Amino acid sequence: MHSSEGALTRGVAHDKNRVMDRSDTKLETLPGVDATGACDKAASRLREILHHLQHGEVPINVIQKSLQYAASVLETATTSESKKDHPGILTNCNPSCSIVTPSKKRSTGQPSAISDLTRQLVDEDDLSEVQPDAVPDEVRDWLATTFTRHATAQRRRGDDKPRFRSVANAIRAGIMVDKIYRRICTPAVMQIPNNITKHLKNMDNWSFDVFSVNQVSSGQILRYVTTDLLNRYGLISKFKIPVTVLENFLIHVESGYGKYKNPYHNNIHAADVTQTVHYMLCQAGLANWLTDVEVFATLFAAVIHDYEHTGTTNNFHVMSGSEMALLYNDRAVLENHHLSAAFRLLKDENLNVLQNLSKEEYRDFRGLVVEMVLGTDMSSHFHHLKTIKTLITHKELNIDKAKSMALVLHCCDISHPSKEWRLHFPWTKLLMEEFFQQGDKERELGLPFSPLCDRNTTLVAESQIGFINFIVSPSMEILGDLLDKIQLTIAQINRPAEGSSSEENGDKTECNSRIKSTKDVNYASLDTANGPGFEYKANPSSNSASSSATLGLGNGKKIQRPWVLCLEHNKAFWQERAKKDAEIKALEDGQRSSSKEHQDETSHFSFSSSEKQ
Q: What ranges does the record list as Basic and acidic residues composition bias (predicted)?
């Protein structure tokens, strides 16, 4: 598939670009940087660029020339006529973007009082709303380079004001440049069509309808879901992921999911698991427990966890002696391939969404992704649950993040029986068809049927009841217990230490603003999802984890745990189906038995008649 075929829609206003191209020729006629009105002209130019960026793209050469002109004007305006070496310097020594200026007295080697300057700027220009971290590192570097390039910039003697009104105006100009920077380097240029955006607003829901989104997105659901979530968590700007690189990577990933045309293990399943992981991060509060790198790794693991899935099980690869089984020595064959193939994509610089991670960040990122994806191997299911149970029973609040997030991804991977019936039933039909297709291959190869792969004998309803009872329900129960303990950990971290200042504790809740949730979710009722004749309500008097409908958050809030009701409902529905299937089977067996008896009687009669003759 060519990348252009799946490119995300961009709102490029060609008419406005032509206007900008024509205005580019006017740069030569702009007044000199030291001329009267140069500041107004530069500000007007920046506002014009911002206006056009709101409607589409602007040629990069126009942006570069305009920013260079504005920089020169700012530099000239802040340069005093005197040559004394006491300049006010915008430094880049720390993330707070400190502004260092000389004190009123002659310098004695001691640093200036930054708080005094900040107070002065607030009084002078009412900049109390300006936050130092509003400007990203790249813009900060640009400003620092611009204003410290000449060592002769200094204040006027005495109380005279510099030509530029104050350093505060330089900060304002920097924020304006930051807006332009964000327009260029963030997903604002990667616009998602409105009809798709409307559906993506429901991604905070437990039973998010991936089938509908896939339909309106023309089969490109994974790239839209992934782009939207990376943007919500601020990861595209945080890790400086180039827009075209992200787009190319997602196109290749989505293409890999369609390589074998699987009914179940495809891009829709990957999007479903990714959205479910988002639910755990957002609604269950896990994002407040993880670092930015860990949140990025968690979403990445969900996106690639079944990349290039062959539509067959690990057991099939081992029994058939496939090349993949030989390569990975019969151990977690598919899971190893998903990881290897996905990370191999990143070797191409045009696909490497991790290109701006530091070596340490990449090491932590890859380690967590590997742990999580390998944890989706069903052969390690019970060992994994036992490990997490052990972690939960310890009184200490220290929890292994890698093992915990591996369980989260594993539970999300098998979570469709815990979604509403309108989603679970289609998923079941798709999964069983994929199993049956494997059974057809096993028949052709002369291999014994794998469990649930014989389309002539498999009892679908019975298989789903067993899957819910022995796999999904216990897993989700343990996951709920794990989330409970994680919330206790978060609560302890956020709890103000005795004698600590409010400023110190204010940083504890910084992660609470990381998630850009689209709406508050209300799961008060699931009646609309119930099948005919079924209605289940949580028992308010029950204290057991399995029947609890809510999960406590470390911040005192409660979130709904809708998988409990969905599991109960779906199990009851399958039990009803199993009962009907048993009745039909008994009727068919009775008919076959009667037919066989009739055939035996006919055969006996024919034999007796021939003896008499």
A: 505-514, 585-603
